[in-house]
Amino acid sequence: MIQRFPEQLEEALALAKHTSLAKHNAPYRSIFISGLGGSGIGGTFVQELVRSECKLPIFVSKGYETPRWINKHTLAICSSYSGNTEETLSTFEHLLTTGAKIVCIASGGKLIELAKLHKLDYVQVTGGWSSPRACMGFSIVAQLSVLHSAKLISGKIFPQIAKSAASLLKEQDQIRKAAHKVATQIGSRLPVIYAADHNEAVAIRWRQQINENAKLLCWHHVLPEMNHNELVGWHDQHDDLAVIFLRNKDDYNRTAIRTDITKDVVGKYSKNSIEIWSKGKSRVEKAFYLVHFGDWVSFELAQIRGVDPIEIKVIDHLKAALAKV
Fold it and tell me: Which of 23, 41, 180, 313 is the least buried, fewest Cβ under 10 Å from its Cβ?
């Protein structure tokens, strides 16, 4: 599934060409995205990738409820790969009372059924993937296609995604070899992920994939915010940690300087510091390169630890326990 990520992006782009929305009777003034897990991180990526272009505020919700400000001037996207995510379905019910323009994104399930029942717009992505976290490409591109159809962003991001997919296909073997080396450096240590603030979606993706695929605790933070609090926590020797800096050569100048200084400070307390630089010209290419790199790191870590990267029994247990209440 990780290996097929570039092809997934291409397939998602083909589906995006057919996205169209019925006219809404009020101008949009805000965008609300509801999603959890792989669909939720998709919303976080969309929020970051279009922030320099989209003139409306975007809010990503990863819970059960909706904020009071949602109204008829809101474009609300409910995204769930399975179509059965409990929190997203709860949010959907809340949204029905707000007058917002609701668009559903799923491969099937109850969310698509409800969209049809209420005669709402929906985007049905390709089904059959056993791990929703592996379907982030569908989530991101589908959400972008909704924003484009609503005339809230231009279509310039789609060729960038296509170029990214082509680059990842070409560099797949090289990325995996480099990821294996990084996974070996991490070993049994607890990973700590640091990135610039505009790259937080990438850092979150790394954390989540290491959690689920490698069955390993991990945390992340972003700069410059980390310099105002967590940096002080680096006070004792921590050779049980592996610190990973995710970097772009065009990070904001002051943030890049802060990262260099932070790396020096952290280096005094941990011997295991790893720096990974993105590749590509556009922000999309750089983000997806780091995403794909991180996905392979999580897989290689699973191999090193001797765990099944697919298995999520504890989440299945949680859902079963919740179903009884």
Answer: 23
